[in-house]
Each structure stands twice: as C-alpha cells, then as structure tokens.
Amino acid sequence: MIIKKVRIKNIRSYEDQEFIFPRGSTLLSGDIGSGKTTILLAIEFALFGLQPSQKANALLRNDRETGEVSLDLEIDGKEITINRTLKKSKKSISQDYASIIIEDKKYEESVTEIKSKVLKLLNYPQEFAKKTNMLYKFTVYTPQEEMKNIILETDEARLNTLRYVFGIDRYKRIEENTSIIASKLREKIRINEIITSNVEQEKEVIIKKQIVLEELKQKKEKIEYEVIELAENRKNKEKLLEEVQNKINEKKILETERAKTDILISEKSFQVQNVKKSIAQIDDEISKIKKVSFNQEEVNSLIQRILFQESKEKELQKEYIEVITKINADEYKKSELQMLKNKIIGLDKCPTCLQEVVEEYKKNIMNNAEREFEIINKNIDSNKGKKKELISKMEEVKKALENFKSSKSSLEMLKIRIENIKDKEKTRDEYEKQKSIIEKNIMLLKTMKENLDKLIKELDIFEIIFKERSQEVQKAKEEENKVMIKKAETNKEIEYLDKDIHEKTEVIKQKENIKKQNEKLKELEFWITEKFLDIVLFTEKQVMMTLKEEFSRLFSKWFSILVSDTLTARLNDNFSPVIEQQDYEIDYSFLSGGERTAIALAYRLSLNQVLNSMLSNIKTSKIVILDEPTDGFSYQQLDKMRDVLAQLDVEQLIIVSHEPKIESFVDNIIKIKKENGISSIENKFSEIINM
Questions:
Q1: For position 455, what pLDDT does the model report?
Q2: Would you give the DSSP letter of residue 632?
C-alpha cells in the first residue's frame, strides 16, 4: 500500500487542506500542537472508520456540522479512493457516509461494509477483521506513547496483547475453551452418574408393574365375557320391546284410519247437504217456470215494431245527411261571397279591360252580395233547426228500438227456460240418485269406524306393556353401560400401565446407553485435561519462544543502533525489555528519557518486522508511519536516527517530528503551521539533498 493523497475537511484544526505523499520518506514538520498527528488520525479514519474506543467529537472541528476525509491509495497497482464523512446531530456526532472507488468503480455502502472491502484489499487475515485496527497499529502506525505503555504493562497484559497482535491468541482461547469443555464434561459426567444411579431400582419397579399388568388383562377377559352376556340380554329385551312397539304402531295406523274415516263421513255428509240444496233449487226453478206462460204472437208483434223502428231510423238518418249537406253548401257559398266582397273593396281597375272601377259599380255588387248573405243565413238557420229536430227524433226512435229488442230477448229467454224444464227434471233425478249413493257410503263408513274403535280398544293394553318393557330395556342398558365403563377403565389402566412400562423400559435403555457414553466421556475428559492441553500449551510455548528469539534479536539490533555501546538490550520470556550494562540489569525507571524513547522505538520497529515476516502477504508491509519517534533524544541519538531510517526496507516512510535535524534525513518535507486555531501547509514539498 502506498498513500498518495489525503484531503481533510473540518477535521480537528483543519478547515480544508490537501496533502500529497510521494514514495520515499516524508517528514511532517511543525511545532508541537500544529496539527501533524491529525493527518495520521485522518488516514486511519479513512481506512477503518471510527473505532469503538474513539469518539467522533475528537475528530470533527468544534464549530462545524460536517467533516470529511478523502484518501487516495495505490495497492498492487490499483488506484483506490476512500471517502468518509462525519455529521453532527442534536445529540451526537456519527459517521454519515462512506464510499470506495476501486479502479473507477464506485461502491456506496455502509461504514462496516467499506471497512470489510479495505481489509480485503489490504489482505489482512480474516481473524483480524474484528480486532479493531490492531494489526494496522503494530505494522504501520503506533503512537510512540502507546508503545511505551505496552512496555510498562504487566507481563500477563503484555503477553495477551502480543498474542492478540501475532494472531496466536487462539492458543490462549484454546486453553480457555479446553478448560471450559473439560469442566462441562466433568459436570456432564456427574449429571449422568446421578441420572443412572437408580437403574436397578427402576428395573424392580418394572417387574412389579408387569405382574399388575397381567392381573389386569385377566380381569379384562372376565369383564368382556360379562359384557357379551349383558349385551345379549339387552338385545332380547329390545326385541320384545320392538314387538310391543309394532303393536303400538299398528294402533297408531288404526287411529289414523279412524281419523280418515271421520273426515270421509264429514265430507260425505257435506256432499249430501249440497245435493239437497241443488235439488231444492231445481224444484224452485221448475215451479217458477211453470207459473209463467209464453205468447208467440207477442214475440211476432215485437219483431214488426223493431222492423218499423229500424226503417224509421234509416229515413231519419237520410234526412239528417241531406240537411248537413245543405248547411255545408250554404257555408261554402257564404265564404265565397265574403272573399268576393274583400276582393271588390280592394279593386281599383278591372283586371280584364284595365279600366277604372267606379264606386257605384262596387256599391251595386256589394248590395247584391249582402242580399245573398241574408238569404243564405236564413237557409242555414232553417236547416240547423231541422238538424236539431232530426237528432231528437233519432234518439226517440233509438230508445224505442232498444226497449223492443230487450222485451224480445226476455221472451226468447223465457221460451228457452220453458223448453229446458225437462232437462232440469232429469238433473234433479240424477241428484236424487247421487244423494242415495252417498248416504249408503256414509252408513258403510260408520260401520267401518265402529270396527276400528273395537280394534283400537283391544290394542290399548300394549301402551302399559310398552312402558314396562322400556324400563326393563333401560335397566339392561344401564347394567351394560356400567360394565362397559368398567371395561374402558380397565383398558385405560392396561394402556397406561403398558405405556408406563414401555416408557420406563426405554428410560432404562437410555440410562444404560448414558452409562456407556459416560465411560467414553471420562476417557475424553482425561485425554483433554491430561494430554491435549499439554500439547496446546507446549505448541504455544514453542511458537512464542520462536517469536521471542526473533523479536529479541531485532530489538537488540535496533537498540544498539540508537544507544551507546555501554548498554545492551534483549527481551525476556515475557517479551519485557531487559537493559544491561556490563552484565548488570538496569531498572527502567533509572533510564533517561531518550533511552526510554529508544527502547519504545526499537520495540516498535522490531514488532513491525516480526509481524511483516509472519504475515508476508499483507499489503501494508512496505509502509511505516512514525509519530514523534525521537522525543527526548540527545543530539548524538538524533544522528543515529539517520542510520535507523537508512536500514528500514520500506517503499514509503512518513515521520511526524518537530525536530529540525530530522529534515536532513528525509526525501520530502511538509511543513505544518497553525494560526488562529487553523492548521495549514506552510510549504508543500522540499527536496532534501543529503550531504
């Protein structure tokens, strides 16, 4: 990985600043508090986002609502751009947006998804995905003070940190998990022993229950025989009851027949009454007809009168039509005269000779027309009087004609009734015969009813017998039900007991299996605690020894470069620095500030090399960032720093320092200044010519 460019906006003391980092060594120079470390924090934020222990308000500029970091990288020839933002809300500051561009392909995803992509690009082992930025801190960038804290930690805390960093904390986890598993196995063994402690007693219980089960089965056989007998008895009684029921049903059928007979007698009696009424009505009609006489001459006279009136009606209609015709003709003449008068009044010249028409001529014509008007009006009035008279006569004739026709119809109807008297007498005879037949039927029905009454009375005794036998059947059913309940209870007891025996047998089988399993668990627990754990601890010790030897060798090398030859350094088994002078150990508290810084830097560089050697495929092995690595160094130690930097085999080195002498050790310089609380670049790059 090579850092190419960082852009910071509203991060700590920066408003908007861009930093370009070339390959080789670059110094971030400036006074203490000018904002140099902020650049390193911004790079870490861009790569991994906020860490669990990191507060967003430590990054966002106090007077701003949003902040942003954009980082350009090169990884295996690929151009990468990462962008992350911060946003202030009413309650807190949080990561707002994250994106990554890989070879011009942009991904806008959650902050954790972007972090996963970065870890994948850096080729960090999967187990470091959940270990905050520990691998990055110990291979690329660790503040010098943090490294001093690791050195001063207790042996156990330091070893745990290094296990974590080296990725071999799994041995510790295996040890812890093995202890947990062994403890759980011992607990399981104890539980299994408790579970299987009463197997023999349970076997004895099953034998006793099997004896009880056999007794219940014998009892069930007796009950089943009793059930069969009681069922047979019930069926016999039900059969006798059914015979009685048939007799009762027979009685009901007879009662139904008797009811039908009563209805038939009632209907026949009603028919007799109707026939009698019809006979009386016919007798009355015959009597009335016989009292009336018919005269044919009277009918003939009415016919002549009708013919006369019809002839008279035709003559009056003819006269009426003639009068109407005359009235219409006179009305037409009258309208023509009126048209002539209107024409003469408006005529000035004769249409034939075109001579002027004199007033006297017009007056003569008008007088003649007036005379004709009078004659026509008299004729119209006269004819209208005749019309009215004719209408009156026609109505009188019509009324007389209707009266004559009505009288004729009455006489003709009387004639028909007289002629039909024989038919009525015949009908009366038929009614008499019908009445006689119905009366005979009524007598037969009454005789049938009497017979039915006798039969029904004979069957009344079966009502009492039915009640007695019903009680017997009910009692038989109750006795049968009691035995059936007893049978069901016995079956339930057998089923429950059989199930209980089966379940307990299965439990015993399971417990016997548990006994066998328990023996295996004991063997497993012994192997884990006595053999496997020893192998794990031995393996961890060997790995740690190998790492310690390499780590100690590198630590001695870097320390010897930074400190005078009178002091030597190595690491003990707990990876704690041991400083010696002429074979005497010197306590850390007696060392000078520069010597303590030298220990921290040597430890830092050694750890970096060991990790990069272990994890040779990670993409951050060729970059190192040193934050104030010479704090407290003497002038001579600062000179030795040149040798340290020369021996670092990295493609990109970024140093943060306020020591002016370091400027002569690097290829590029970025000078930072801070004015009015705002940090900025004083001059971007200066090429240094090492003398």
A1: 83
A2: T
The larger pLDDT score, comparing residue 312 to residue 415, is at 312
Q: How far apart are CA 293 and CA 280, in angstroms?
A: 22
Alpha carbon distance 49, 100 (integer Å): 12
- Cα 370 from Cα 253, distance rounded (Å): 110
Q: Which whole-number Å values give the CA distances from 567 to 264, 558, 584, in the listed order? A: 146, 12, 10
Give one DSSP letter per residue of 543-606, joined into a string: HHHHHHHHHHHHHHHHHHHHS-TT-EEEE-TTS-EEEEETTEEE-GGGS-HHHHHHHHHHHHHH
Strands (E), 332-419: none
Tally the C-alpha atoms within 13 A of residue 621's C-alpha that lie toward its C-beta. Answer: 14
Residue 462 has a pLDDT of: 79
Tokens read off for 515? 């006994």
Buried b (16+ CB within 10 A) or exposed e, 440-472: eebeebeebbeebeeebeebeebeeebeebeeb
Alpha helices in 346-358 (DSSP H): none
Class of domain 2-153+618-683: alpha beta
pTM to 2 decimals? 0.52
Rounded to 5 degrees, what are φ and ψ at 384? -65, -35
Structural domain spans, the chain: 2-153+618-683, 292-419
> Which residues lie below 8 Å from residue 489, measured CB to CB, with a gap of 6+?
none
Please provide residue 608's backbone torsions phi and psi, each rounded to the nearest 5 degrees. Answer: -60, -45
Average pLDDT, the chain: 83
Residues listed for the chain: 691
What's residue 102's pLDDT?
93
Q: Among candidates 28, 36, 65, which has minimal Cα distance to 674?
A: 36
Cα 70–chain centre separation: 44
pLDDT at 514 over 70: yes
Query: Which one, of 219, 311, 258, lies nearest residue 447 by Cα?
Result: 258
pLDDT in tens, 51-62: 766 777 788 898
Residue 246 neighbours by CB distance under 10 Å: 11
CA distance 165 to 611: 8
Q: Please tell me the distance from the alpha carbon of residue 623 to that of residue 650, in angstroms, as a whole number.
A: 6
* Distance in angstroms (rounded) separating the CA atoms of residues 83 and 96: 11
Q: At what angle do helices 635-647 and 593-614 cross, to 10 degrees?
A: 10
DSSP-derived 3-state class of residue 11:
strand
Please give the Cα distance from 17 to 70 (Å, whole number): 11
Instruction: Tell whether domain 292-419 is in CATH 1.10.287.
Output: yes
